[in-house]
Amino acid sequence: MRLDPANRLDDSFGYWHHSRVNLKQAQSAAVKAAHAAGKVMRQNLRKPKKANEVTSHDIKLELDVRCQKLIEKILLASFPEIPLLGEEGDSGDVQSEYRWVVDPIDGTVNYAYGIPHACVSIALQKKVSSSKTAKHHSVVGVVYDPFQNELWTAIRGQKALLNGTPIRVSPRRNLNECVVSIGFAKSRGSMEKALPYFIWLARRVRKIRMLGAAALGLTYVATGRLDAYIERGVNLWDVAAGGLIIECAGGKYWSEPTDDEKIRMIASNGLIHKKLPIPK
């Protein structure tokens, strides 16, 4: 049987992809959904926004919900059998073989304050079984910045693209030459744990940047604008697409769950990865 190269997963998966899900078509649906949500974001950037929830370090907007519903509608039109796991709620059985993972507005606080640094993040994940466990891995990743009109796309086993052009992580090897982004989680406990890491890092790299949108931080590493991005308390929907894009751009993405059901992660160009301690 001849297989479509668009549906081939990389060798780390240990098999060819024999599914009814065409990854090119899935990527096209995700791009369409990201553009639609991005248009809503652009139209409302300077307008008053309704907050559904406000905490000390986070804001949930009515527009988050509206954008996720729009994304869900477009994705389900093309793939009605695939459930969706999203920041604003789930639809269907998210432990199925395939699932969409969606952050409708990553960087909501930036966006709520009128800072045009936010994006749409959409990943398609497939459950892969090993000898011990079954775990979902991203096979399609789409991140769209509607304010810069920058669209990052990746299919596992293929090159990552920015607006259709292949991208590559940076070649920098020395920490003192690197620009690194770090994110602070929303809980007070996580912030207290992150501060010592921030101080350690600040003494060793050229510059630290705190940009406020995890998915964009990851794509900036993939594009070589940043050399690494580190955070100890992100959610799956923040990193599902961007982590894949980094790997497809030649970088390294590492993550593990934390005790509070978040994810600690290090994403880098791969050359400085071992020089960066795991955030506690």
Task: Kindly report the average pLDDT value.
Answer: 90
**Whole-number count of domains:** 2
Number of strands: 15
Sketch the topology as an H/E string, one letter per element. HEEHEEEHEEEEEEHEHEHEE
Q: Whole-number radius of gyration? A: 18 Å
CATH topology of the largest domain: Fructose-1,6-Bisphosphatase, Chain A, domain 1
List the total number of helices: 6
Task: State the secondary-structure class.
Answer: alpha+beta
CATH architecture of the largest domain: 2-Layer Sandwich
The CATH class label of the largest domain is Alpha Beta
Helix proportion: 25-40%
Largest sheet: 8 strands, mixed
The CATH homologous superfamily of the largest domain is termed Fructose-1,6-Bisphosphatase, subunit A, domain 1
Shape, per Cα inertia axes: globular
**How much of the sequence is in beta strands?**
25-35%
Widest sheet: strand ordering: 4-3-5-6-7-8-9-10
**What is the first-to-last residue Cα distance?**
48 Å
Low-confidence spans: 1-6, 11-17
